[in-house]
Amino acid sequence: MHIALYMPDIPQNTGTIMRMAACMDIKLHIIEPTGFRMDAKGLKRSGMDYLAKTVLQRHKSFNAFNEWRNEQQLRLVLLTTKASKPYCDCEFEKNDIFLFGRESVGVPQEVHELADKRIIVPMKKDTRSLNLAMTTAFVMGEYMRQMDAFPTT
Predict the structure, then answer these.
(1) 3.30.2010.10, 2.40.50.140, 3.40.1280.10, 3.20.20.60: which CATH number matches 2-147?
(2) Prediction pTM value
(3) For residue 151, what pLDDT is reported?
(4) Hey, which of 10, 67, 81, 87 has its CA 20 to 30 A from 135?
């Protein structure tokens, strides 16, 4: 299981996602540059002692990430407010990697065009977006349900 964060802006979101990844045995990919230092206080506070348990791979650019992804034959699933297909109506595959955009601006159009699938978490019409960490948890929960991939205790 893979999550990729495209140039994340907010260390607290990244720390929370790192904690979830550690607890749920999900590999986390961070596409740089980030909007914060990776030793940021907020990252440590939200990730707590789970940061050391996170399987983390950093990529120096989207091109480096995409090259790696293609070598691994992973299907790129982009979460975006510009999609029309709800995540809960999507059939996921074991080779999926879920890409989440920057909190401030999402991902550029060329990344949208490279995605194999584009999905959305449906929301009320008069709302703009959910917190990145919450969105990640929604989608990964559904993926893990479909793959019967919840860690055993």
Answers:
(1) 3.40.1280.10
(2) 0.94
(3) 84
(4) 67
